[in-house]
Amino acid sequence: MEWPTEPLAYVTWFTNFTSPESDTGMYRVQPSKDSKYQDRAAIVYLTDIRQSCMLTPSRANWDPSWTTNNILDRCESFFVNNMQSKYSYQTIY
């Protein structure tokens, strides 16, 4: 087996977009789970990634135990921030 020579990235998959929320205009996503309720993830070539996106918890009440280190594990749904930049607005919205 040969090891890849290109840079790799670990990607956690989220659910597909449906329609934007009427209040925010943002799409809501949740971590995609497999049949054992584990997060779906993959290792991909860095060159296959076209764009990153900013996720914001989609809850009105924030849990005080959330930190930058655990938010992706503890929060159940997120908004995709399509207002992060002009490029993200044009490509996500």
UniProtKB/TrEMBL annotation:
This is Uncharacterized protein. It comes from the Eukaryota. The lineage of its organism: Eukaryota, Fungi, Dikarya, Basidiomycota, Agaricomycotina.
